[in-house]
Specification:
The protein has 168 residues and is an all-alpha fold. The chain contains seven helices and no strands.
Length: 168
């Protein structure tokens, strides 16, 4: 069941790419993808079906989902260059983490730390505000806060992978 929920997140990512950003359908699949992300791991653990493969599948689904949302949002709103650079740096750190994890552990290594969990929750919020009527300053604060949390989580993940802590 947990892997089915994870697969639904990948399907939601593909559907997000089809519908206009900030439309009812976009938000429906965005929220459904977020819910599956929140519950798939819990379902796996509670049912005794948590596996290393499931954790990797979850990470892959997260990557698909985040990329789909970023593609839709960046293609639909004006994003300042400094923010694109910051998001790109976070993405590069995450990509390097995957590569270094593979080199160090000889497998697809994932880190499920508290900061990564908090990051997942916080980073989920900005798309809910960006398409709204809130002032641009409020939207900017939400996005900046999410980028700070994502930066800390990515750096902590780097440290964990380099030192071999909590790497699954």
């Amino acid at each position: 069941m947990a892997n089915i929920l994870t697969a639904i997140r990948i399907i939601c990512a593909l559907l997000i790419l089809i519908f206009p950003a900030f439309s009812t359908w976009f938000y429906l699949f965005y929220l459904l993808g977020g819910i599956t992300d929140a519950v798939d791991g819990t379902v796996a653990r509670k049912s005794g079906n948590a596996t290393a493969w499931g954790a990797k599948f979850d990470t892959i689904a997260d990557i698909f989902f985040v990329l789909a949302v970023l593609i839709k949002i960046i293609g639909s709103v004006v994003v300042p260059s400094w923010l694109l650079i910051w998001i790109s740096i976070i993405a590069i750190i995450k990509a390097v983490n995957i590569i270094v994890g593979f080199i160090r552990c000889h497998r697809f290594a994932t880190v499920h730390s508290v900061w990564n969990k908090v990051c997942g929750i916080i980073v989920f919020v900005p798309p809910l505000f960006i398409g709204s009527e809130y002032a641009w300053q409020a939207k900017a604060l939400v996005v900046i806060f999410a980028c700070i949390i994502a930066s800390v989580a990515a750096i902590q993940e780097s440290v964990y992978i380099i030192k071999g802590y909590h790497v699954e």
